[in-house]
Amino acid sequence: QVQLVESGGGLVQTGGSLRLSCSASGRTVGTYTVAWFRQAPGKERAFVAAIGERMRGSRTYYTDSVKGRFTISRDNAKNSVVLQMNSLNFDDTAVYYCAAARGLITSSIPGINHYDYWGQGTQVTVSS
Question: For residues 54 and 27, is the Cβ–Cβ distance under 8 A?
Answer without folding.
Answer: no
